[in-house]
């Protein structure tokens, strides 16, 4: 495996985005790049604290704030009560399953969206959230994911 190289690349990447590559920031970014489940801050904390016993929730929240601010990760507001995070920052849509709570990526041609009423507005961000039931859950099979 190229773990070390990967970590070095991430450091360089963060520096290039003007972010000091602290240990926690690297770990959080690494987690988001490998687990593409759009985890919440709490899920990230729980996943990392076993590896980093001194980790605090605040440091995870701070790291996410810094990474979001730098555009390295994006915060999703697909759920009202809890933010989810995504290391895939290009424009894409998100579908959340109401049964298993999973969040799926899908590609969208944002350029084809019509929004003439926004002529003269400066659009800084476009989010597209769909909700429904994923194919797995439609099958009515056993639970395969975590519940919300
Ligand atoms: Zn589902
Ligand atoms: Zn996504």
TrEMBL record:
InterPro entries: FUR, Fur_C, WH-like_DNA-bd_sf, WH_DNA-bd_sf. It holds the Pfam family FUR. GO terms for biological process: negative regulation of DNA-templated transcription; regulation of secondary metabolite biosynthetic process. SUPFAM superfamilies: Winged helix' DNA-binding domain (SSF46785). Zn(2+) binds at residues 97, 100, 134, 137. Keywords: DNA-binding, Metal-binding, Repressor, Transcription, Transcription regulation, Zinc. GO terms for molecular function: DNA-binding transcription factor activity; transcription cis-regulatory region binding; zinc ion binding. Belongs to the Fur family. This is Transcriptional repressor. It comes from Candidatus Caldatribacterium saccharofermentans.
């Amino acid at each position: 495996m190229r773990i070390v190289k990967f970590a070095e690349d991430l450091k360089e990447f963060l520096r290039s985005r003007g972010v000091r590559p602290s240990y926690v920031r690297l770990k959080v970014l690494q987690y988001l790049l490998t687990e593409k489940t759009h985890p919440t801050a709490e899920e990230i904390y729980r996943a990392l604290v076993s590896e980093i016993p001194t980790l605090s929730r605040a440091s995870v929240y701070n790291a996410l704030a810094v990474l979001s601010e730098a555009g390295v990760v994006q915060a999703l507001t697909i759920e009202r009560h809890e933010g989810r995070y995504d290391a895939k920052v290009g424009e894409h849509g998100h579908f959340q399953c109401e049964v298993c709570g999973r969040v799926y990526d899908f590609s969208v041609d944002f350029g084809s969206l019509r929004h003439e009423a926004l002529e003269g507005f400066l659009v800084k961000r476009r989010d597209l959230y769909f909700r429904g039931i994923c194919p797995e859950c439609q099958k009515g099979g056993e639970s395969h994911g975590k519940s919300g």
